[in-house]
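Async update (no meeting this week)

Hi team, since we skipped the sync, here's where things stand on the single-chain job. The sequence we agreed to prioritize is pasted below, unchanged from the tracker. I ran it this morning and attached the output directly underneath so nobody has to dig for it. Comments welcome in thread, and please keep replies under the output.
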Amino acid sequence: MISGSPATSPATLPQGAWIETGEDGRAVLNRGEQRIALGPGTRIALPAETQVGHTRVDQVRGEARYTVDKRRAPHFEVRTPLVAAVVKGTQFTVTAEGESHSVSTHEGLVAVSAASGGAPAMVGAGLRASVRPGSGVVVEKAPPPKAAAPARKRAVPTKEDQTEDTESDAPDAEAPQVAETEPAVSALADTVVTESEAGAPPKKDEPPATQEPAAPAPAPSPKPEPEPQPVPGDTAEPEEQPAPAPQPEPAPEPGPEAEPAPEPAPEADEEPQPAPQEPAQPEEEDGDEPDAVPAEDDEHDHDHNDVRGTDNDVDGKKNKVDGASNKVTGDDNEVRGTSNTLVGDKNKVDASWTKVSGDKNKVKGAWIEIDGRKNDVEGRDIRVTGEDNKVRGLSVTVAGNRNDVQSTFGVFRIPTLIEGDLNVVRGGGANTIGGSENKLTGSYGTIYGDRNDVEGDHADVEGSDNLVRGANAFVRGVWNNIRGDGNHVEGDYNKVVGDDNTLYGHYNDVEGSGNDVTGDRNVVVGDDNTLFGNLNEVDGNRNLVVGNGNPVRANGGIVYGDGPNATK
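Output:
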């Protein structure tokens, strides 16, 4: 049925049409090099409005096999309630049945993602990606193909069996069922061809039923009835006429003519030799269809490249490429994936949509860009410029050498940015480092400077050689040693143990929480003390000291002045 009308013959479909096949119906849609074969109980539709140059098919249920022409950019999309598949050109089957919808790739690569969202999975030939409600994409080896539909087997016996069938009337009874069960076609195709298990073909075979009169042909069986075969004994008498046997003697006369014949005979022997039936050997290669692709790259055979897949462009020697739309310039590279661009030597890439410029890089993931050497990168949305970097995670940008970064997206998907050398980063992501030899463990951290060692989230450090252990630390200076959460330190060589302390100055030593110190070389042991001055020593809580050189051993004390002259 096409958009509500039964389909029994080829038809041209309007934009926005739909097709549905019955339990024993089938349909085939063709448009140029594109083909969709619908199995029984399948319904698909094409939205009335689609992007120019982009084809989208909505498969509501059932199973359909798609053959899509190859182009440089993705242009064909199939969606079910649970899964979405996007291709540049390949062959694949989409099944939308029950609680698991799947995509099986027969040739090329298919980008498969869950309809609910998430990163796509690249599914190669021989693999199947499936999605269940509320889950992501699961890729596994595709099961063996189903046996051929019995419908075709039925069509074959009808040619001879109809001689015995007065059941030719039965197909006529089934034919209307076909018209009813060959429902609805999508607007994708220019023409639609429907098939049925008991349709017109049986009617075509009806004339052979009229050929049943040929059955009298068995009448020759009475011919054996004239068993006067003993008469052949008389015929044996003509056999006695061997006189004609000497007639073969003239045959030897052509015999001498046969003498030149043996000369062409060896030529016949030579003819089978050139007969390059060796191409029959490719029949063994038929099992490996991609082997036919290297034939397209014969121009590089002299460079010993091993190229499998489609639309790959390789310029160099000893490269191994398996995928689609890859461009490789260099030697000894190993590439697996799709739409990768490499310029360099001895790179190993198992990724998609990745750009690599340099040598001896190792890359795994997607949307990665590398400019440098000996980088080891795994993840997504990563950019690396430099050498000997090791990166694991999502959305990371590194500019420098010998950095070791492991990161993931932050809550707001803020990327990690690293600029410098020998930095080591471990955390949940959204970190920023500008400098060298820094160590950061945490998320949402920011470091500008060198040789800082920070553990904690939301750290903000600007300076060098600082040691920070705690969250929400704010540090400006050098050689500060801070242990605790929420400390704010601006100065050099300060030591803080505790939480929520604020220091402005140098060489201060504070142990406690909630202290506010402005000055140099002060020593504070306690909580919630406030100091303005230098060289003060406070042991207690909630003291206020304004001055220099004051020793305070009290709680809640107030001191103004310097040393012995201070007013308490």
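Quick observations from my side:
DSSP finds nine helices and 47 strands in the chain.
Residues 148-302 have pLDDT under 50 and may be disordered.
Reply here if anything looks off.
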